[in-house]
Amino acid sequence: MPLLRVHLDSDPATARRVLHLHREGGVHHESREAAREQVWRQGRTPAGDPVFVGITNGRRNVQLLYDVEVYSDTGP
Fold this sequence. Notes:
Elements: E1 3-10, H1 12-23, H2 29-41, E2 51-55, E3 62-69
């Protein structure tokens, strides 16, 4: 199944918290659900849970990065 990379705008404090949770084996449920909603808004159907893959290096404009498997027969 294809992967869709999702970029979510965030602030540096939240990005650090999400990264820390991920490293400790946890999940930031709010950002994961936001990634899932963004996939739906793009007209695709998620095939699984969003997987956190990292954050961007921006000082002010930080983004959370998620990969989401999507069904290939949906979307544009």
